[in-house]
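Chain and backbone:
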Amino acid sequence: MLALLPLILLIWASFRIAPSSAAELSLERNPLLLSELARLPGSPDATPSAQLALPAGSLDPRALNAAIPFIAGKIDPAPPYRFAGGPTDRTNARDCLALAAMAEAGPSDPGQRAVMQVVLNRARHPAFANSVCGVVFEGAERATGCQFTFTCDGSLSRQYTPASWEAARQRADQALSGYVYRPVGNATHYHTDWVFPWWSPKLQKLAQVETHLFLRWPGYWGSVASWRKGRSATEPSFADLLSRFARGTPAEAELAAQSPLGEVVMPPLPADTPKVSGGAVVMRLPSGKANFVLVTPAAGADSVLTMARKLCPEAGTCRVMGWADRGLIPAALPLPAPSRSALQFSYARDPAGTEIALYNCETYPGLPREKCIPRAR
């Protein structure tokens, strides 16, 4: 019996529902923990319940949600999230966080902050991706598997005004620097009160912010103790994610009025459009001689110049123009006034091979004056 005791203890520890050392264990080496996380209702890999219909006798989701009580007691705030990556990774994280907040909560300050808090809570929970952009776009490649609906239902084509982006980015920067939106605690889930997801009654209801209900798993996996002690400092490219998952839908026409340019219908990209990093090609003429791109200024001046040269590899005339706001990219020349004033980068090459590269020196600081886009342009 004494000889068998270590084996018995090992088996017992492996099958515990909430091992106190789970946060220290490598999930890749613990298939039992991976399986347990995948079975959690509402996790990215969970299989939806076969019973998705509303219970008989009540077809009102709001009534069903109201019938589930909030948990009793104090809701402790989540620990602060402090981003540890470099400038480019932080810019990607900020833009992913800002986009999720705008798409999920509209212009509301408390609504956006609550959504951001859930994203940052998820980024630290082992059931979800280990980066901010990874959390926001998790499952976006599957039409029915996305964790945030706006990433797979065509809503990525929505246009937001520069003022909306500025406000959301400010909130995102604050959240990445440690600001905590206390009312939602360590919630990892939310939904509006006019829907009743199959997983909602299986979670603990923590709070309501405007029309959103915020929830977490019960037990160990709903506690901060289960969170990762370390987190990724590397973020996927925000521009690349948009380029990969954006799909044209009627939502674009519906919301295009929010853009200073009104409705903009982009021609399809030519099949031979080069793949670029540090940004995304939004418009390219079939000849390849004119290109409009989405850029990430935090990636630096060298990055955007490399992109331009990749789009203009052959001899002859070629033009590349870049913007940091997708909503200000026009479909063709000449540039409308809002696009001219928001231009971040301009590259031109003449038939003799002479290059002229100019930058918005407010967003690309430290460049010599002759490299700056004149304000009058």
Observations:
- The longest helix spans residues 87-105.
- Residues 10-25, 50-58, 248-258 have pLDDT under 50 and may be disordered.
